[in-house]
Amino acid sequence: MNCIQIAGRLIGPDQPPYVIAELSANHNGRIETALQIVEEAKRAGADAVKLQTYKPDTITLDSDGEEFRIKGGLWDGRRLYDLYEEAHMPWDWHKFLFDHARKVGTTIFSSPFDSTAIDLLEDLNAPAYKIASFEAVDLPLIKYAAGTGKPMIISTGMADADEIQEAIDAAREGGCRELAILHCVSGYPAPADDYNLHTIGDMIDRFGLVTGLSDHTLDNTTAITSVALGASIIEKHFTLDRGGGGPDDSFSLEPAEMAALCAGAKTAWQALGKVDYGRKSSEQGNVKFRRSLYFIRDLKAGDVITRDCIRSVRPGFGLAPKNLEAVLGRKVTRDVRSSTAVLPELIDSWPPR
What we know:
Layout lengths: L3 E3 L2 E3 L6 E5 L8 H14 L3 E6 L2 H4 L20 H8 L6 H11 L2 E6 L2 H9 L5 E3 L7 H8 L5 E4 L5 H14 L4 E6 L13 H10 L2 E6 L5 H8 L4 E5 L17 H18 L19 E4 L14 E4 L10 H4 L26
Parallel strand pairs: 3-4, 3-10, 4-5, 6-7, 7-8, 8-9, 9-10
Antiparallel strand pairs: 1-2, 11-12
Helix pairs in contact: 1-4, 1-10, 6-7, 9-10
């Protein structure tokens, strides 16, 4: 499994998790809010901000038909067209947001939902593309994005293993050389017990790609846990105020929570480390508090050491307790006082042959 690179940042299992703050619809119709979200994502420690680039007319039809109306869930009863009209990021905002992200020193890219969105993002020199879960079956879109030669991340919510492979094949056929996939559950919000995080390890083995998590749960537990199972990327919706009333606010992280995610994910990755049974640097000072053998009676030179003469106690300056039986029955080489560590030079004919 190779690393990928977005705007100079290596992403893969040997690198700290790459955290993406998904701005989505959380601008709530105000470019000032969108610009502030970019700043707060940077301040919280996110590696990138991600937009969504579509218009209501490029993602659905302006229809009153029942199949174009949402039934159940967070947006129950709404027409798709009306929801996307409210939620979409106006295209003339994109340049301001890309310029602002570069000004504050953070990476910005987007999920395009049709070829015209990719054309716009290419004009802005987007460093990567993200394919949303609902578009993972749009193989022509994937191929078109792949044709830019930019790194690509594909979310796999609702996709089975065959559909994931088809999306990967389309990306490769289109020319994508740096590809990652995200395990995802396309519920808004999604319950943690739907995530089946062990799937991440299987995806890594099955597809051989940098793999991460697009997390729609309401806290950070699932996302941080995913790092221990191999996730190299974490994507979370991000807002200034969960009570802001926008379409995505209610299942998004606020700034303090995003900061906690960035810190927690990095700590989890650092804690994984490598297989290592050696003594750790933080343990060195405590070695002296291990148990060892100590004399608990005064002895004269030539006295035989019996069980009532020594004990295994803390600290650890004497012979290790595993030597107890070998010490018993031997003579001391000189006078010793109680509370003296049992050392090799105090034992006759040590070490035993």
